[in-house]
Amino acid sequence: MTDEIITIGNSSIQHGKHSNRAYLMNLAPGDLPAVLPYLDDLARTEGYTKIFAKVPAKAKKDFMANSYLSEATIPGFYRGERDVCFMGKYFDAERSEERNPDLVQAALDAAQGKEPLLEVPPLAAPLHCRMALAEDAEAMAQLYRQVFATYPFPIHDPEYLQETMASHVDYFGIWNGDELIALASAEKDLAGENAEMTDFATDPAFRSRGLANYLLARLEQSAGRQGIRTAFTIARAYSYGMNITFAKSSYTYSGTLTHNTQISGKLESMNVWYKDLQA
């Protein structure tokens, strides 16, 4: 099941039953306020229980006046100059209330209690890391299928991986000899000088070896060379490992998106973390 991406005016919206939501991925300045009733109508017509919106901070008041909550903020998100707000509007009271607040807090406390890494340890042979290429797409999709039963985007499809690779996503992988064992990506907005660090997957046999931190460091280096200023992630709030990975890499926690994303069959809350790569 894959969500649909549509364009309304000049704004991009992803929606579908996968996460039972509409997601305003990009708000064009001229589409406010007309996009607000459109999103409401879309959610009600399709029976979605949440609208999730990533919008410039100057649009925050308009969304809050339309019953949105501000769930996270990243300063200097656009070209290091303008903040972004992650907004949520709920059409179901049960979805709006965190069902595992103690787990969210425990994972966050564990992450924020870690000391930042001074440097990422090198990989031990025969492990090696490089940017993934189009010919790696089948192995990449196979690893994603192994790690994630379902996912918000069709990363199980080699053609999707090749298409995004050719347009705006950098994938880095770690190989054990010829076997791909870990993978992550940076989804770049070069005009806005920001990138989402996402799609982390490690073969279960190779976990707890710091591979995610190594991949994150390589993604940051590559993104920084391309002029990316702000790196961010939307990490599973119930996952100690991913929150610790970003905290140890000196990311700052920004907020929690309640029951935001369906992963492996369940709606999960997500934590937003960010880092200035040019600091």
Automatic annotation (TrEMBL):
Query: Which residues, by range, are in coiled-coil regions?
Result: none
What keywords are assigned to this protein? Answer: Transferase
Domain N-acetyltransferase, by residue range, is 127-279
Q: What are the protein's GO molecular function terms? A: N-acetyltransferase activity
Q: Where is the signal peptide?
A: none
Matches recorded under NCBIfam families: GNAT_ablB
Please identify the protein, giving its name as recorded: Beta-lysine acetyltransferase
Give the source species.
Desulfuromonas soudanensis
